[in-house]
Amino acid sequence: MTPTALSVDSEIQLITAGAPGATGSTCTPELAEGPWQFDLKPPSYGPGASMADPIPADAPRQGELPEEYKTASKAELDARIRAAKATLGDRVVVLGHFYQRDEVVQYADFVGDSFQLANAALTVPEAEAIVFCGVHFMAETADILARPQQAVILPNLAAGCSMADMADIDSVEEAWAELSAIYGTEPDASGRVPVIPVTYMNSSAALKGFCGQNGGIVCTSSNAATVLEWAFERGQRVLFFPDQHLGRNTAKAMGVPLERMPMWNPRKALGGNSEESLLDAQVILWHGFCSVHKRFTVAQIEKARASHPGVQVIVHPECPMPVVDAADAAGSTDFIVKAIAAAPAGSTFAIGTEINLVQRLANEYPQHTIFCLDDVICPCSTMYRIHPGYLAWVLESLVGVDGGPSVVQNRIVVDEAVAAPARVALERMLSARP
Ligand code: SF4
Q1: Half-sphere exposure (CA, 13 Å, Cβ side) for 329?
Q2: Region labeled Disordered — which residues (predicted)?
Q3: How much is the pTM?
């Protein structure tokens, strides 16, 4: 089936073509507006999958983008971005997350998932500036791993992550204190401590630092099982945050019974659990989720199978457990990309992850039929906040306007008191690799 032509935004297209069977509808008409409209409104994640999630009061705000970047045509922005990049040369590297729109990804020197991109930044030590077209926690991770003299820039400070914001350092420290009161701090006869904190890469630097300071570790969606094995060798149980679904799906596949995975709701005493259930717990799951991946359902999988016999359904492990269980395979964005690349021509895939990646894969692999499980276009709200206008602004500021000095806009700096233990947790993850 030929992809249906769709255009969400006539000037800067958010989605360049629709998936087969797509209705063409979007989850909100606000997606057609320039993201700067939302910088000036009361704080929100913006339009898209996270628009109904409560945003923390202290979430970073983006100042007003200069008018010329809001009104420039697509062609003008393209010329200005390319000219600024050419002038800056090796002084700057642009990173683009898989979930960014193509109109941004086209300028990226590296494209990948959050950890691939943080590592990519390490390969360009000569770059003075790393422009991270992604979300806030990714820029923080890049700053933690980058050289001190390198400036990590997030083109729009409002590009956060609603899932990462669901676990804040104060709530996690409170949970840790409550759990310590129940478990104590003494190791068992095998030398395993009562509980190991494990944070998903999609978390603030403060939480990575917390893990580093408390014998814990970071995981990605690619290595979550390896990291949990590492943790179970050293601890009797795991406190996993912020994504309940990645934690549950991974631990379940490793044989942990569901009844030994209580959920921790930070708004309730003992996370909403009894002391008894916490004593029996093997994995305590933080009450966090990704609103992009929460949209996928078993009914969508059934519909895809009915309309495309032989379809392979691959979903991201941030999807709810019934969806992962019903799919043919589940894995990280890198897993999805590689599975499609390795498939014989003529394969059909229904994919459960962010629409910009799915649509890019559909365009890159015309020999396959590739479509998003969700036929309503609802991208990640915060990835959406990065637009070529912001990229042009940060790059031209680095060049210096009208012969003026180079200006670093939107630098993300992680205090060394947080970065040092966060680095420990990240290094533990690297050393835990099989
Ligand atoms: S897709 Fe989900 S986890 Fe990823 S940045 Fe968006 S809200 Fe966060």
Answers
A1: 15
A2: 17-37
A3: 0.94
